[in-house]
Amino acid sequence: MLLAVFIGLLFAYSLVSARLEKTVVTAPIIFTLAGIAVFFRIQPAAGRMDTGAFLSLAEIGLVLLLFTDASRTDLRVLRNIRELPARLLSAGMLLTILLGALAAKLVFPQLTIWEAGILSAILAPTDAGLGQIIVNSPLVPMRVRQALNVEAGLNDGLSVPFMLFFIAMAAAGAGDASFARFIGEQLGLGLLVGAGVGLIGGWLLAVARRTEWMSESFLQLAVVALPVFCLLFSEPLGASPFIAAFVAGLFVQVSFKHAGKHSVEFTEEWGQIINLSVFFLFGMMVGREYGGFGAAPFIYALLSLTIVRMLPVAVSLAGSGLDKCTVVFMGWFGPRGLASIVLGLVYLEQEKHLPGEQVTRLAVMATVLLSIIAHGLSASPGIRLLSMRNQTPKSP
Q: Taking the domains of the chain in order of start, what are their residue ranges?
């Protein structure tokens, strides 16, 4: 029944997609709200949903998206703007997690400081999917687009060790928590897995293409297999599949420069179905928790999307040479979506049964829901305002 509803919605959206793309109403908004409406209409299995299957689907969607975004990132441009991503991923991210934890403790005093850290780490990463309209727009300066793209590609994987460390500290006696070990496994091994898959996979693709051993019809599938390899190889090693997928997308270009073209084709045709299904299922999860929402989760969501995000970005970009309008633009367009959904599900899959789990679940849902709507509705107007600001002659 649910599959039929989703396919019907996908077909209906496809019929009017060109018209909708000219409006502020985005696909994630439509599919999320549809998921909420569908839950209230049919309420499947008395509100029970298989979070394990949902997690697997969300992880696949996220690694495909991260690989695609990285594979179409111009490495020459990236070398010239490397200072901006470094600022956002270091000082910016650390300040975001710190401010997010303080805000969580303020809004939800019942949370321990470690549980507040868990919530902050889950919501620290930005979403490459919800930010695609920004990354793809020629009206946004290349330097800004690529910086936001690289930030979204790497900050989800960087959030994982923080989240796991906070979980271990919150669950007293749950295990021997070693932050350095988590960093080494999640970040270090993630980089190695991604670089290995990208370099070896790209070389094999180039050889097969050059010797004409590979059929053109299978080229797209071969390219898309690489991020799936990252997911499969990362799990037994304890590495971050999200960092691995993004790094593989960068390194595959060393030997096979056309990877971006073919991964984009797949994502636009098939990967989009996975992403939209995640937003549809997320909407159903929001519907399931409807009775538990109060004002507090949405107050935290508002803080998370504004002060908690924008202040660290402003601090980290101080002295970068960017004007105030561009800094505000980059601060606001840090949407929360697939990455936070995945990290939230990973947290629940840990089954630590912490006292603040329900509060964390509701806060994550409220923040992602508000982000889907607010960032979706403001993306096109924001791009136009930034473009007009950049075209306005500066007074002497």
A: 50-127+136-390
The radius of gyration computed from the CA coordinates of the chain, to the nearest angstrom, equals 20
User: What residues contact residue 90 under an 8 Å CB cut-off, 6+ apart?
Assistant: 316
pLDDT band for position 48 (50/70/90)? low
CATH of 50-127+136-390, one of 1.25.40.10, 3.40.366.10, 3.10.180.10, 1.20.1530.20: 1.20.1530.20
> CA 129, CA 34: separation in Å to the nearest integer?
18
Distances (CA, A) of 327 to 95, 197, 313, 321, 390: 16, 35, 7, 10, 13
> What angle, rounded to 10 degrees, do the helices at 338-349 and 113-123 form?
140
Neighbours of 355 (CB within 10 A): 11
Per-residue pLDDT of 217-273, as tens digits, reads 788 888 889 999 999 999 888 788 888 888 898 899 888 887 777 777 776 667 778
pLDDT attached to residue 95: 97
pLDDT interval class at 275 (50, 70, 90)? confident
Spatial distance between the Cα atoms of 78 and 224, rounded to a whole number of angstroms: 23
As a whole number of angstroms, the distance between CA 117 and CA 129 comes to: 25
Reference 97, options 312, 341, 330, 350; nearest CA is 312
CA-CA-CA-CA torsion sign (133, 216, 246, 271): positive
3-state helix/strand/coil string of 345-360: HHHHHCCCCCCCHHHH
Q: Is 122 exposed, middle or buried (0-12, 13-18, 19+ CB in 10 A)?
A: buried
Q: Let me know: does 89 contact 151? Beta carbons within 8 Å.
A: yes
